[in-house]
C-alpha cells in the first residue's frame, strides 16, 4: 500500500483510477523526484501574473534556428516581430523540387508542418502570418509523434476562449 497526501492507496482503487485515467498520477508518489531548483527559480522570475504567462526570451537565436532548420531566412519585409508572412512560406516552400536530397525534403516537411500548426491547428487572429514559436517542435521530426497534440490544442483553445471571454466581460462592463 502507498500513501497519497495522508491517504492510503488501496489496490482495490486501481481499476477506478485507471477508468478515470488518473492511475499514473497516483503512481507518482512511489517515485523519488529531485526538484530542479534553478529551473523552478528561472520560471518564477519569468512569470507575469497580469497575463498568467511565462515571459521567455526569444530573439536573435530564434532566427538563427530558423535558418538552420529551414535553410533560408525570410527577407525583412516578410517579417513582423516573430511572424513570417504566409505568402512567403507558400512561395518559398510551396513545392519540393524533384530529385531533392533528404535534407531538402526534411526542410520542406518542416515548413509544411509549421504551416499546418500555425494556420490550422493553432490558428490565431493574424490569419496571414506564421509565428516562429513552432520551430522547436519541428527541430526533431521523429519526436513529433510523441507529443500530445490534443492536449496542446485544447490548451490553445482554452487560452483564446479566456481571452475572448475577458474582452467580452470588459465590453459588458463598459455598457453600464
Features of the shown structure:
single chain, 176 residues, mainly alpha, 2 domains, 3-stranded antiparallel beta sheet, two-stranded antiparallel sheet, 51% helix, disordered C terminus, Aminotransferase-like plant mobile domain-containing protein
Task: Describe, in plain words, how this protein is organized in 3D.
By secondary structure, the protein is mainly alpha-helical. It has two domains: 52 residues, no CATH class; 90 residues, no CATH class. It is built from eight helices and seven strands; from the N terminus they run ββαααββαββααβαα. The strands form three sheets. It has a three-stranded antiparallel beta sheet. A two-stranded antiparallel ribbon has the order 1-2. β5 and β6 form a beta hairpin. The protein starts with a strand and ends with a helix. The N terminus and C terminus are likely disordered. InterPro entries: AminoTfrase-like_pln_mobile (IPR019557), MAIN-like (IPR044824). Pfam families: PMD.
Amino acid at each position: 500500500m502507498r500513501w497519497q497526501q495522508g491517504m492510503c492507496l488501496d489496490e482495490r482503487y486501481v481499476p477506478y483510477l485507471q477508468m478515470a485515467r488518473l492511475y499514473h498520477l497516483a503512481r507518482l508518489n512511489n517515485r523519488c523526484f529531485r526538484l530542479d531548483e534553478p529551473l523552478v527559480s528561472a520560471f518564477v522570475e519569468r512569470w507575469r501574473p497580469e497575463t498568467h504567462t511565462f515571459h521567455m526570451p526569444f530573439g536573435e537565436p530564434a532566427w538563427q534556428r530558423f535558418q538552420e532548420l529551414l535553410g533560408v531566412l525570410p527577407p525583412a519585409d516578410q517579417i513582423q516581430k516573430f511572424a513570417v508572412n504566409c505568402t512567403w512560406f507558400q512561395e518559398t516552400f510551396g513545392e519540393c523540387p524533384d530529385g531533392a536530397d533528404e535534407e531538402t525534403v526534411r526542410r520542406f516537411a518542416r515548413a509544411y508542418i509549421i504551416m499546418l500548426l500555425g494556420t490550422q491547428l493553432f490558428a490565431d487572429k493574424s490569419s496571414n502570418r506564421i509565428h516562429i514559436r513552432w520551430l522547436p517542435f519541428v527541430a526533431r521530426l521523429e519526436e513529433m509523434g510523441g507529443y500530445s497534440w490534443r492536449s496542446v490544442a485544447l490548451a490553445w483553445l482554452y487560452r483564446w476562449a479566456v481571452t475572448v471571454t475577458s474582452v467580452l466581460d470588459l465590453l459588458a462592463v463598459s455598457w453600464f
